[in-house]
Known about the structure:
Order of helices and strands: HHEEEEEHEEHEHHEE
Distance between the termini: 41 Å
Radius of gyration: 19 Å
Number of strands: 10
Strand content: 15-25%
Strand order of the largest sheet: 3-2-1-8-4-5-6-7
Number of helices: 6
Helix content: 25-40%
Largest sheet: 8 strands, mixed
Structural class: alpha+beta
CATH superfamily: L,D-transpeptidase catalytic domain-like
Amino acid sequence: MKLTCLTILLFISIMAHAQNNFRTTQTKFERVEKAYAEKWETLEKFLKAAGLGDGFSMIINAYKSEGKLEVWLSGKADKKYSLFKTYDFCAHSGTLGPKVMEGDKQTPEGFYYLNAFNPMSSYHLSLGINYPNSVDLERTGKDRKPGNDIYIHGNCVTVGCIPLTDEKIKEVFILSVEARNAGQERIAVNIYPFRMTNENLKNYARQYPMQLNFWKTLQKGYRWFERDRSLPDIKEFKGKYVIK
């Protein structure tokens, strides 16, 4: 029994050390270190005021038409997320509707998660999303390339990514590092064509009727979050999102 308890304690210690190392590893890069020096003191004050000083998990919601990126945070003891901060897109690319193939300049639409932290990006700092997922690949088909390298990044140019300017990406990058450092393996990034109210869906569907069925699927996730302030169970099955 003693050996088992010691093993468990050792495992917990190793996991905690590994999590803390994520921040340490990132801040070894000059741009991240500088971002923390410039932004962390103010961010930490707001986090503590929101009761999030002991760590948090994070969700990113982005709306293409409105050009808004929202950061939602939840404390360790909370079941619901609260809006922490909203950032404006610095530039737009393409039109409404999902990304279909390489070179179409479209920003993806769908349910994703962060899969890369790039502290040496060509666009200052950048956070990669896991595009293309299986839903995107089904849409693209076998005869076309889906494209890749979709990021939330600095600077103010885009051919499908979400640029926020260097100053804004510093904050979003830091918050993402902190969520990852607190143990969140997957930080959700939900990219919607617009705020998916019934009225907006009806109006935009007149302009883009071919997207209506796909957008109705996204709307299920949007409504769930608006109602419960938590993520639904989202699966990818046979080229579609299944939301429960």
